[in-house]
């Protein structure tokens, strides 16, 4: 998609290989006009993540479709329950600052499932 917005070709670029070498003036302009402070707001302002200076945060992510079931010692398809279980786990980890769903559930349990 970025290819459509960049009209000038720079030596070293290769559209087929999806490699792009940016013009130095584009990089300079982007750095000069970007915001110096970005706030990712939490439900409680005490949990806001302020992106500026040398602040560093650690978090989760991934979007895996399978999990290791420790009770059965085998991989299985991720379920909605795994999203909730991992969120609770992350909530208890002191040095994890944010949670992004770590698994992509493919199986949903009904109310009657055990």
Keywords:
alpha+beta, 114 residues, two-stranded antiparallel ribbon, single chain, two-stranded antiparallel sheet, 12% strand
Summary of the model, kept short:
Helices cover 23% and strands 12% of the residues. The protein has helices at 2-5, 24-33, 80-91; strands at 38-40, 49-51, 66-69, 74-77.
Task: Write a structural description.
The chain is of the alpha+beta class. The chain folds into two domains: 1-34, no CATH class; 36-114, no CATH class. The protein is 23% helix and 12% strand. It has three helices and four strands, in the order ααββββα. It has helices at residues 2-5, 24-33, 80-91, and strands at residues 38-40, 49-51, 66-69, 74-77. It has a two-stranded antiparallel sheet with strand order 1-2. The longest helix is centred in the C-terminal third of the chain and has 12 residues, at 80-91. The radius of gyration is 21 Å and the shape is flat. It starts with a helix and ends in a 23-residue tail after the last helix. Mean pLDDT is 83; it is low at 1-5.
Judged by helices, strands and strand pairing, the structural class is alpha+beta
Spatial arrangement of strands, main beta sheet: 1-2
Low-confidence stretches: 1-5
Q: Alpha-carbon distance between the termini?
A: 45 Å
Count, helices: 3
Write down the Rg: 21 Å
> What's the main sheet like?
2 strands, antiparallel
- Determine the mean pLDDT: 83
Multimeric status of the protein: single chain
Number of strands: 4
Number of domains: 2
Helix content: 10-25%
Strand content: 5-15%
Q: Report the order of strands and helices.
A: HHEEEEH
Broad shape: flat
